[in-house]
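Continuing the batch. This is chain 6 of the set; chains 1 through 5 are on the previous pages. Same settings as before, nothing changed between runs. Recording input and output for traceability.
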Amino acid sequence: MENLPPNIRLIEISPTDDEHIYKLTTTSQLKDEIETFKVNMETGMSKKID
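Output for chain 6:
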């Protein structure tokens, strides 16, 4: 994956109301099934969400 063109986006990450929590979503350029995770940057933990 090191040599991907700059216009390829494998994930999207967006902030939430909590400054330590982000929503990470895979894109179809990474794989067919789109998955979303809640990522806590303070604890380093993540959890798959529907």
